[in-house]
Structures are given as C-alpha cells and as structure tokens.
Design a protein that fits this description.
Number of strands: 0
Number of helices: 11
Strand content: under 5%
Radius of gyration: 18 Å
Length: 202
C-alpha cells in the first residue's frame, strides 16, 4: 500500500490513538521549542529509537519518520508528560538490541533494514526468546513505540515531530483552520482549493 494508505490505516487502529494524538502537552511543547537536542535519551537510546521509528514509517517516495524527526518528539514527551514511560523505554531498548544480536549478531541500529523489519515483526508477534523478563512484553513495547512514532509523525510540529509538516503532507491534511468560520462547504467537498498552513494549495 502507498504511504497515505499506510498512515491512514495505522492511525485508525483505535480511538485511543486519536485521544493520545490530541492530548495537550504544554511541557513537551515548551521543551521542543527550546531545543532539538536529546533531553532524556542517551546517544545510543536516541539511535535505537530513531532506527525503530524509521522502520515503522519508512522513507520511500514520501518522507518518513526520519524526516519528520519523530525521535525528537519521543524524547521531549518522555522528558515531560510521558515521563512514566521512560523506564519502559530504558528497559525495552536494550532488549530490542538483545533480540537483534541474537538473530543477526549486531545491535538493532547496526543491522540491515530487512533484518530490522524481521526483529520488529518478531516483537509485535511476541516471538522473541531473547526478550528477558520485563515490566512489559515485546508486543506491548512495540505498540508503545509505534503509537509514539505515529503521534510524532502526525501531531502539530510544535511538539517536536512532524518536521516541515511532512506527516500532514503525506496524510493530505492541510492543517487546522484558524480563520473565523473555518473551511467553506465548497472546500470541505473538494470544489474549492484549501490553502495549507505551509502556504500551498490542495
């Protein structure tokens, strides 16, 4: 399937996702405005998270999670409103590397993309003998990172992800309408063009 269909299907897998996407994150917003440098993720953790996001929303003819800088959103969220999940990342990321080493002899960020896909499929299915005891299962960990990746791809860029509106461009979303009255009926049904927040018409 193409990227727009993938994003649409992934984003629609549950109401919970849309609730998470629209949760106000004032502290994350402030942190994202101050810096794009890592706040709570170590250099190794950042590399692993970035590599995972890159396979969840890969780059092809459309930009993906790397271009959207989803890892930056995750870092800022884990430093603030999502801080309760930081320990889950801290315990889960070494286990992702352990699965990669067990299967392919190197850490996740160092193996080939098709090998990374195989590791993530195994995590999602729970078929991972190298996943040692942890507060969350491999399936639960994968879902957490997938949700954060999609939020980082589709949420307002002010939260640190969706850099240059790439997620909205892929999804065909022009951005929120700030003008009084919102979109016209003709714009809503596609008869009139809509000017996007990045200045193009669609």
């Amino acid at each position: 399937m193409d990227r727009r269909e993938f994003v649409g299907r992934s984003a629609l897998y549950g109401t919970t996702f849309w609730l998470l996407l629209n949760v106000p994150r004032p502290k994350t917003l402030q942190a994202a405005a101050q810096s794009t440098e890592a706040v709570v993720l170590s250099e190794d953790e950042w590399r692993t998270v970035e590599a995972i996001t890159a396979r969840i929303v890969p780059t092809d003819h459309d930009p993906g999670a790397i271009e959207a800088n989803c890892v930056n959103f995750i870092d800022k969220a884990l430093a603030n409103e999502e801080a309760d999940l930081l320990s889950t990342y801290r315990e889960g990321l070494p286990r992702v590397d352990a699965v990669a080493v067990d299967r392919f002899g190197a850490r996740f960020a160092e193996i080939e993309q098709d090998e990374q896909d195989e590791v993530l499929i195994a995590l999602e299915s729970g078929d991972v003998s190298a996943w040692s005891a942890a507060p969350v299962t491999s399936k639960e960990f994968f879902e957490i990172v997938r949700s954060h990746t999609l939020i980082g791809f589709l949420a307002d860029p002010k939260y640190g992800g969706n850099r240059d509106y790439v997620g909205w461009k892929v999804a065909g979303y022009p951005g929120p309408r700030h003008d009084v009255g919102g979109y016209t009926p003709a714009q809503m049904i596609g008869e009139d063009k809509i000017r996007t927040v990045w200045g193009e018409e669609m």
